[in-house]
């Protein structure tokens, strides 16, 4: 890849800074992408992935860091968007020395980038990073961190789902509503508990038989296999496992009137599948808005952790979702677009506000 191609990519998404980190002794090859810091330091997790090529790694980190800008902005946080990827097979490349070396690169950015856990990184890895830099969140509670963010994420999704229900049925009560949850892991599991408590009827799918059995016996959830989850005769579909599931194949299968779940990047192509959902009369609660509880939780850690405040801020997802759904109906634009417009407006307004000393 030539330099001009890299700058073309940075210009496409309007990135501020991209840092390539190389260390021969630990084998570290990482890319830190800082997308936008108008609202505050760029916060985003570090993903370890065995990419097929360096170009693929760069594309992923650019896309993910941009997504973090929108998530932070729509959540009203004083944070920008950034993300890091470490290239390699997590089971082979991750060592104390490599994670600490990565921490030194983060430290060199003087707080412009704050890192956290992501796919294939754990709290243990962040403890290593923390040995070299204070610009890291997602630390265990024993170290003053916020611990596992997934209960707060699930609470935010629940708030987004209730706001969507109110928009569609005039009440935010989920009692008696049928909800299909795809993926009952950390977030999906907590969500199931909340839905069950409110009296919703649950249909679940997962590739993990043990968790399926657990929720079938403890919460009376009905279990379905694989793709059957899309065509269930339910009111709400909550994707909590995979991205890109809202696509040409699955959208026509949906009977649900609301889609609200935790998975990232649910729309395979936002410009095609956002409008397709509207045409089919399906209300989609934008993923980056309603799954922001995890980010809200780590932001609290950044400013001094308080779990109650994290939950209170996650509760606000109800109001923002209601506002987005209204804008989408009034302006006849799909919900993801409405949410992105609102996020961009906040960045622009705050950027202008800061234009004088
Ligand atoms: P997790 O790994 O704990 O749970 C995912 C679950 O999905 C697992 O039980 C897994 O077996 C299941 N799964 C995998 N493939 C599947 C398939 N084909 N069909 C059905 N189930 C399948 O992850 P999580 O932390 O619960 O996160 C769930 C989703 O939410 C992910 O997309 C994640 O990126 C997103 N998310 C999570 C958080 C958080 O705080 N954990 C925050 C924001 C977004």
In words, what does this structure look like?
It is built from 14 helices and 12 strands. It is α/β, with parallel strands linked by helices and 357 residues long. The strands form 2 sheets. Strands 1, 2, 3, 4, 5 and 6 form a 6-stranded mixed beta sheet that branches. Strands 9-8-7-10-11-12 form a 6-stranded parallel beta sheet, with helices on both faces. α2 (54-74) crosses α14, α6 crosses α7 (186-198) and α11 (293-303) packs across α12 (307-315). The protein starts with a helix and ends with a helix.
Give the tags.
single chain, 357 residues, alpha/beta, Rossmann fold, 2 domains, 14 helices, 12 strands, binds nicotinamide-adenine-dinucleotide
- The helix fraction, in percent, is 40-55%
**Helical stretch count?**
14
Tell me the count of domains.
2
- Name the CATH architecture of the largest domain: 3-Layer(aba) Sandwich
Rg from C-alpha positions?
A: 20 Å
In short:
With 357 residues, this protein is of the alpha/beta class.
Per-chain topology:
Layout: H1 3-13, E1 17-23, E2 28-36, E3 42-43, E4 46-49, H2 54-74, E5 80-87, H3 90-93, H4 96-108, E6 113-114, H5 123-130, H6 150-169, E7 178-182, H7 186-198, E8 201-205, H8 209-219, E9 222-223, E10 236-239, E11 258-259, H9 270-279, E12 283-284, H10 287-290, H11 293-303, H12 307-315, H13 317-331, H14 335-353
Parallel strand pairs: 3-5, 3-6, 4-5, 7-8, 7-10, 8-9, 10-11, 11-12
Antiparallel strand pairs: 1-2, 2-5
